[in-house]
Structures are given as C-alpha cells and as structure tokens.
Design brief:
Elements lengths: L42 H5 L4 H14 L5 E2 L11 H12 L12 H15 L8 E4 L1 H13 L5 E6 L4 H8 L3 E6 L10 H7 L4 E7 L11 H13 L3 E5 L22 E5 L12 E4 L5 H11 L5 H7 L5 H27 L13 E5 L7 H12 L1 E2 L2 E2 L17 E5 L5 H25 L2
Parallel strand pairs: 1-10, 3-4, 3-5, 5-6, 6-7
Antiparallel strand pairs: 2-8, 7-8, 9-12, 11-12
Helix pairs in contact: 3-10, 5-6, 5-9, 7-8
Bound molecules: pyridoxal-5'-phosphate (PLP).
Pyridoxal-5'-phosphate binds next to helix 5.
C-alpha cells in the first residue's frame, strides 16, 4: 500500500543529508558575499570576450536614462519592425494557444515556406528537410560549430569579421583561425588566402557575405573557388547569409548554388527586421540533417513557437513588397552615410555593397577606437560601435588589442543622421583643436 504524502509536514530547512535550502526571509547557509564563488569557471570562459557593442549599448542607455539625447548608430538592428501581416499572424497564433514546443527542426509550414523562398528568390530547388529553424543565426552558428568543430580543430575566418564567430568556435573548444584581410580584397576571404592559411589542423572555413562589420560581399565566383578549395581539403564551408537579402549592387545569389554540401545560415533578424523575435535557420546537407536535429533537440528543444507561426507570413507577397521597399531605404541611407563619414574625416576605404554598416578608419583622430567611440558618445551624444583592429598592418588580431577602425551602422532613421554627421564633424574638429593645443609648447 503506497504511503500517503503528508504535504506541509516537511521541514525544508533541514532535509536529510544536511543541505540547507533557502526559505523566504531566512538567511541561507552560504550568503556571506554574493561575489565570493568558490568553484572555478570553465577555462573557455576566459577566452570569450564581451560583445563590445552590447557593452557600449549599456553606456548609451545609461546616458539616455540620465536625460542625454543619444543618436544610435551602433547596434546592427533595423529601426523598422515586422510588417502588419506578420504581427497579425503572431496575434492569431497567440490567441489560438500555439505555445507548445515544435519539433526541433521547426514547424513544417515554416520550413516549407523558407524552402519555397529559395526557389523563388534564388532559383534553387530546396528540400524542406534540409532546413533547421533556430533561435536566430546565433543559435544556428553555434549549432553548426557544435556539429562540426572537434576540440583543437581550427576554423578559418576573416579579421575583421563578426566578433562572435570566434567565440562560437571557442565555445566548442575549437581554435578560431583569423585571416587578416584588407581593402585589397574588400575585407573578404579569397581562395588564395584560404590556401595559404590552411594547415593540418584546419577543419573548415566560416565566411559571411555580405559581412559585418564591413558590408562587403564575396564575388559569387570567388565564393565558388573558396568552397572548392575547402572541399578539396576535406573541409567544411559555413556561409553566413544573414545580410544576403540586403544586397545593393547585384541580384543576390545564395552560396547554396555552389553545392549541396555547404552549411548556410540566415535569419529573420536583418532583412525581415525581427531581431528580438530570435528566429533564424540553417540549411544543412541532407546527409547531416538528422545529426543536426539530434543536437538541436538537446541544446534548444526548438525555436520560439509563436515567432515561427508568425514568420510564415514574412513570405506573403504584401510582406515581401514591404521588405523590398525597406531594402531600398537602407541603400539610400548607405548612399548618404558613406560620403558623409568621408567628408567628416573618417575614410571608408571600401564602399559597402550590402548590410547596413560602414567600416571607417579613425586613425587620423585616435589610435584607440574604443576610446574614440566613448569620447564621441560623451561629447557628441552619438553612439557608434567601434571595433579594435589595426589598419596599418592588418596583422592577425584575435585579442582585439589593435585599435584604429570603427563600424558605423546605417540601420537607424535618416532624419537624425544629418545631425549626426554635423555633430561628428564638430566633435572631430574639437578633437583636432584640442590635440593641436596640447602639441603647442
Ligand atoms: C554576421 C552576423 N551573423 C549573425 C548574427 C546574429 O544574428 P541573429 O542571432 O540575430 O540572427 C549577426 C548579428 O548582428 C551578424 O551580424
């Protein structure tokens, strides 16, 4: 006969085994100093730097909270939000109570819609079974690294590049292998660079096209040569196409046209303007789909169910028409901000052909772009993210200790932008005057 559980008679403060559980209002057994933790963090934590843009965002938010006007040119997210059909679909899904988990690879209807879009947009036949829906490209890239990167394995990537890439690799005990790239290759990888940097420990390559922070793309044929070279070495190619929809010069073509063995990621964050909805996807080779599914099941269970239901409406003709109009607006902003930065004394060595970034050289004003960003934030109330990189030699720099380039985003409304460059110019002029004054005997 099972014993009846006497609820309410258990003394939670002294369970068998002597562990003391917290009781509301009572002191815990170990609460002397909340910062005094006596177990070590995993070593990889020390190798992962903060995401600097998020750190600067905190400072800008603090200034704003103190009543200072701040014009945000910092974080890579559109000022647009999801179009009406997507918001309506979200509301319908919430009201219908679609809040349970989906399968790890995502809703069948969403995977089908994404696959169809590859056909309509890029002329590629795509089996929905190759699509794994994820919580943004961030989860997609970490899932890909989990699946492909063994401890100690090296992964080639550009420097400058999206800063989290090296940390996705490090998180799975791989070794990021930055390749210094400069204006001569539009800050992108080439086959020649891949060949000269590939070594016995290299397992693959991770590229983005168009890229963050430079907004430049790899020419389609060159991308094919990169894929071919990695393939010839038995390596993988991961292509981050999160900004592919925001291409301004040529009709965009997906790297997937270069073979079914590629791993490609994309997201609803940028072209679809849904950063906070946390939704993206991977396209994986058919043969690897079940391995990716197994990992996704364990690591994340699934992406947000409500966001998945809503995202199906991103592919409605009305939504797509709005996205295309907004893409034109981003192009217009690029055409404004790049010459404006140049006029303000911040050369942009390569005109971006996609995304919403401009990679400017601030070495004439400062040898520390982080400091330069903070000073502009304090003096001009303008905030843009800076990345620490060397411009003169573009030597490999995985530790971010060289500092002469800055990234500016054009993903914010244009109206303050005119004020921005004036203020930037004023701040730069004041800076130049201050420097001249301190140089005087
Ligand atoms: C190149 C690149 N990849 C991936 C991401 C992550 O995007 P999300 O996780 O929002 O899809 C970003 C975000 O800025 C990015 O710039």
């Amino acid at each position: 006969m099972p014993q009846k559980l006497e609820l309410g008679t258990i003394d939670l403060t002294e369970p068998p085994g002597g562990v003391v559980l917290p009781v509301a209002g009572a002191p815990t057994a170990y609460n002397a100093d909340p910062m005094d933790i006596r177990y070590p963090l995993a070593q990889r934590t020390a190798q992962i730097e903060p995401f600097h843009v998020m750190e600067l965002t905190k400072r800008a938010a603090a200034l704003e909270a103190a009543g200072r006007p701040v014009i945000h040119l910092n974080i890579g997210e559109p000022d647009f939000t999801a179009p009406e059909p997507v918001v309506a679909a979200l509301e319908r899904a919430a009201r219908a109570g679609h809040t349970q988990y989906t399968t790890a690879t995502g809703l069948a209807a969403l995977r089908e819609a994404i696959a169809r879009d590859y056909g309509e947009r890029y002329g590629l036949e795509m089996a929905p079974s190759r699509i794994v829906v994820t919580a943004g490209a961030s989860a997609a890239l970490s899932l890909a690294c989990c699946a492909l990167v063994d401890p100690g394995a090296s992964v080639l990537m550009t420097d400058p590049g999206y800063p989290c890439n090296r940390h996705f690799v490090t998180a799975f005990d791989g070794v990021p292998q930055p390749v210094a790239v400069g204006p001569e290759t539009r800050f992108q990888l080439t086959r020649a660079l891949l060949e000269s940097n590939w070594h016995a420990g290299t397992r693959g390559v991770l590229v983005a096209s168009p890229a963050n922070p430079t907004g430049t793309s790899i020419p389609f044929d060159e991308l094919g040569r990169i894929v071919e070279a990695a393939r010839a070495r038995g390596g993988f190619t991961i292509v981050d196409e999160i900004y592919l929809g925001l291409s301004y010069e040529n009709a965009p073509r997906s790297a997937l046209a270069h073979g079914d063995d590629l791993i490609v990621t994309n997201s609803f964050s940028k072209y679809f303007h849904m950063t906070g909805w946390r939704l993206g996807w991977l396209v994986v080779p058919e043969a690897l789909a079940s391995a990716f599914e197994k990992l996704a099941q364990n690591l994340y269970i699934c992406a947000s169910t409500l966001a998945q239901h809503a995202a199906i409406a991103c592919f409605d003709p009305a939504s797509l028409a709005e996205y295309e109009a907004r893409r034109n607006e981003f192009r217009r902003r690029r055409d404004y901000i790049v010459p404006a930065l140049r006029n303000a004394g911040l050369p942009v060595p390569v005109t971006p052909d996609g995304a919403f970034y401009a990679w400017a050289d601030c070495s004439a004003h400062s040898d520390d772009s982080w400091q330069f960003a903070l000073e502009l934030l304090e003096s001009a109330f303008m905030f843009r993210w800076c990345r620490a990189r060397t411009s003169a030699t573009m030597t490999r720099c995985a530790t971010c200790d060289c500092r002469t380039r800055t990234r500016w985003t054009g993903c914010r409304r244009p109206s303050p932008a005119s004020g921005v460059t004036c203020r930037a110019a004023n701040a730069l002029e004041a800076d130049a005057q201050r420097r001249a004054a301190t140089r005087r005997p």
